[in-house]
Amino acid sequence: MASAASSTAKDDEPTEETALETARRQLQRAAAHLDVDPGVIERLHHPNQVHRVSVPLERDDGTTAVYTGYRAQHDSVRGPYKGGLRFHPDVTEDECIGLSMWMTWKCAVMDIPFGGAKGGIVVNPKDLSTDEKERLTRRFAEELRPFIGPTKDIPAPDMGTDAQTMAWFMDAYSMQEGETQAGVVTGKPPVVGGSKGRDTAPGRSVAIVAREAIDYLGWDIEDTTVAVQGFGSVGAPAARLLDDHGATVVAVSDVNGAIYDPDGLDTHDVPTHEEEPEAVMKYDAPETLSNEDLLELDVDVLIPAAIGNVLTAENASDVQADLIVEGANGPTTSAASEVFEEREIPVVPDILANAGGVTVSYFEWLQDLNHRSWSLERVHEELETEMLRAWEAVREQVEDHDVTWRDAAYMVALERVAAAHEHRGLWP
Ligand code: NAD
């Protein structure tokens, strides 16, 4: 992520912005296009609250280790806070604040009644046994208990955490409440209140938005070539759905490299990260490429869906795609965004494109509060409706204000958040 990039760069190298710097700069850019009370903008520069907790863990060998955990809660004017919990050695307070701001915009652009939050523990989960991870998660839930809850702040999985982590978290929270509170987290296994379709939702939304963008540009999807970096929860469903819609997916990759077939890959046959981790390169394809080469392929649509900061000042001029749809969070640096703007290459931003994840998390929360389970068909239909609604709102801003897709998405979000602040007012 951005903050990790800056912390590892040498002093004489240009550093990427941190997540917090990016979030604040995006807020300023969007505010410049809108007539919003400067007092509201000033409030939105700051998180409402940041909780820092110490999380003691009894290791398997009987020793005690203490980890630092955070929960940044940016803004709750439109509803309870919502956002992921990551277990990663690079988690910092500032990164949590920056990512919590992104969550505010992501929820608002989707018109979901949640505000933004993000949290995590500074730990490498690969250094922990499954039992240690469970104890750490349960203790973290206990430390955060005063600040979270189904109507206050609803965490979700993120880097280094998964559906099992959310099940432990929900169980630990519920045990102290004296009743099952499935709505305290989303991204749970369906058997304990998770939603069908949550796992593929961010990739599905990327495919829906890419399909709409292809249509908007007047292209025929049957004649459209696509390259996807990353073949995990986001990249694989996105590639497979676009393949199903008739697009030709010529390249996909994992951390080890990319496979390439100019006639199109059978994306349903390539193993996803979940089906068999890091197995993309084992697939029998005509050519292999590096991840760097994949980003510079001469394709119509490029979908970076692996990690942040892969499209940079160094490679933006060499990108040959005519449309970029951001599957990962923050794959395009600010400098690269400027190059794409100059080159008039549309970049559909992460806060819109991969928002299917938080949208189906919202559906999960609704199902939990109502003690109902939706069919997969219903989840897909409602996600399609919500994505098209958000796409239309952003498209209108692009057309009305002649701005980039990223600025348009932030403007839609900021307008909604600011209007809520203006109606509620500042008390006292
Ligand atoms: P994942 O772990 O399921 O898959 C990641 C894929 O990227 C794997 O194929 C992996 O091999 C590959 N990869 C890892 N490091 C790479 C590298 N350095 N270069 C190229 N490929 C690499 O992860 P995911 O859940 O699909 O998340 C991908 C991105 O999407 C992240 O930025 C994440 O924050 C974002 N995102 C995820 C969700 C979600 O709910 N899963 C929602 C919104 C956004």
Automatic annotation (TrEMBL):
Subunit description: Homohexamer.
Active site: K118
InterPro entries xrefs: Aminoacid_DH-like_N_sf (IPR046346), Glu/Leu/Phe/Val/Trp_DH (IPR006095), Glu/Leu/Phe/Val/Trp_DH_C (IPR006096), Glu/Leu/Phe/Val/Trp_DH_dimer (IPR006097), Glu/Leu/Phe/Val_DH_AS (IPR033524), Glu_DH (IPR014362), GluDhGdhB (IPR054867), NAD(P)-bd_dom_sf (IPR036291)
Residues at the site labelled Important for catalysis: D158
Pfam families in the cross-refs: ELFV_dehydrog, ELFV_dehydrog_N
Organism superkingdom: Archaea
Domain Glutamate/phenylalanine/leucine/valine/L-tryptophan dehydrogenase C-terminal: 195-425
Transmembrane segments: none
Family statement drawn from the similarity comment of this UniProt entry: Belongs to the Glu/Leu/Phe/Val dehydrogenases family.
UniProt keyword list: Oxidoreductase
DNA-binding keyword on record: no
Gene Ontology biological process terms, A to Z: L-glutamate catabolic process
Cited CDD domains: NAD_bind_1_Glu_DH (cd01076)
Name of this protein: Glutamate dehydrogenase
Keyword Kinase: no
GO molecular function, one term: glutamate dehydrogenase (NAD+) activity
